Amino acid sequence: MDDSLYAGSAEFYPTGRLPYPPLLAEVLRDELGLDGTGRLLDVGCGPGSLTLLLAPLVAEAVGVDADADMLREAALAATTARITNVSWHHLRAESLPTELGTFRLRDLPQPERIFQIGDVEHPPLRDAVAAEARMKIVIADDSVLLREGIVRLLEEAGFEVAAQSGTREDVLRHVAMHKPNVAIVDIRMPPTHTDEGLRAAKEIRDRHPGTSVLVLSQYLEPAYALELLSESAEGVGYLLKDRVADVPEFVAAVKRVGEGGSALDPSVVSQLVGRHRRDDPVSQLTPREREVLELMAEGLSNSAIAERLVVTERAVEKHVTSIFGKLRLGADSDTHRRVLAVLAFLRA
Fold this sequence. Notes:
six-stranded parallel sheet; single chain; alpha/beta; elongated; Rossmann fold; 39% helix; disordered N terminus
């Protein structure tokens, strides 16, 4: 709406006339299909708002505003114009909006997040279809170039990047604010560029159990990876930054971690598996069993391993049973617990 329509609107109130072109009500009535029924909600309803223009075209109108003075002026204007079907609601600062979800709306190209303001009851949304919820991501890396690249590829893959930052303090604040599904954190960040990201990831897990963490590292540091996974493998990941270049695998890892799974970089697993131990039972594994062991340690489920190796899931189950027997580990069908069991063995 052109702001000029509101200019000098105060002079109309004593006369009961409204500051709009005469034909505007007719145009809006036809465009919105107003027929004297239904309900109108106007948020931010100052005295020059459309509430006063459209109220006569609906059965009931509701005006909501956080400014009590504006509400009083609007109510006075309504009285002067003899408009009686409007109720006014003051939105107080403590009345936070309630998110109703993400919907696809008619004539809008992208899904929109819809909020309910205050405690006013609203009719069901018309011409709105609930959109599939996107996984929400927060990213922290002091390299702007890498961070922007990750944002772009994740958004193209259908993720919602809620915020990005370059410091430990910022990512902790963004996680608290946006409550993302996954926080992707560089292991080395300012000011010391040592383990700020690792400490931030552990703090996120402690403070926000609903947020999974995926740590990125420039260098292969198995000790950091195992420290991150020491307590639980659920919703935890550790990848080398080079892995981002393999977009399908990186996207799959982010999704897996966001869904409560785990992702451990293959380079870390290969180094652990390749360690020489006295009387090492890993040496008893067949080449295929070693492949399956490494994929288990990376956090892949049986079905994902089957897809990666192009074999049946039943074949993977047989390999897993054989591996656990040769390593003298108790068989466990829970993916998270078996990841911990395998890693505990490999780092022993």
